[in-house]
Design brief:
By secondary structure, the protein is of the alpha+beta class. It is built from five helices and ten strands; from the N terminus they run ββββαββαββββααα.
Length: 193
């Protein structure tokens, strides 16, 4: 079963007290399906996985910022209350910005899907890509475009600077090695004496 992830949002309508807008918290929220944690290899360090639509898991980055045990704590979004049932390992989606923590809400398939990751076995990427294209052609009108990329493509886009710097550093490392080799193999003024 594919893992679908809704667009992540950093929202401030999550509060720790019902009706008290001054008790807002800064936390990134992702709506995820039941298989998210096993699919992404993110272990649950404390508590359990969600069993109801009102259960949520937070990562231990947010847990540590609270400086208390948050399992059983309620978070509110408008009139909806959620109960923290588990703590996951840290979820770091961006290496440039330190995360203020994540809350993982149960996925609601009736709303927007921002991303859909499909795991394939090595050597099956082309077959899976053809299957994805077939599903898109069957499900979407012709005037709607889609992008099918690999997770590695996403990483290359997010970290383009590092990949460019890696190539530049490699280039200068090779030049340095060549210069060093030339210096050690060239005759020195003492050799002529």
């Amino acid at each position: 079963e594919p893992y679908r992830r809704q667009r992540q949002m950093c929202i401030r309508d999550r509060t720790t007290e019902k009706g008290n807008e001054n008790s807002w918290i800064d936390i990134s929220v992702m709506a995820v399906p039941a298989n998210f944690f096993s699919f992404m290899n993110i272990p649950i360090e404390q508590g359990r996985l969600p069993q109801t639509e009102k259960d949520i898991v937070v990562d231990n980055v947010w847990q540590e910022m609270q400086k208390k045990n948050v399992i059983g704590m309620n978070l509110y979004s408008g009139n909806t209350d959620y109960t923290i049932c588990g703590i996951s390992a840290p979820f770091q989606a961006n290496v440039y910005n330190r995360s203020s923590g994540y809350a993982f809400l149960p996925y609601d398939p009736s709303v927007y899907i921002g991303h859909c990751y499909i795991k394939s076995h090595p050597g099956q990427q082309k077959e899976v890509a053809r299957w994805i294209e077939k599903v898109y052609r069957e499900m979407l009108p012709e005037n709607i475009t889609y992008q099918a990329k690999t997770f590695l493509d996403d990483i290359h886009i997010l970290h383009a600077l590092e990949y460019n710097l890696k190539d530049i550093i490699l280039f200068f490392a090779v030049i340095s090695i060549i210069i060093t080799c030339l210096l050690y193999t060239s005759p020195s003024p003492r050799d002529g004496l």
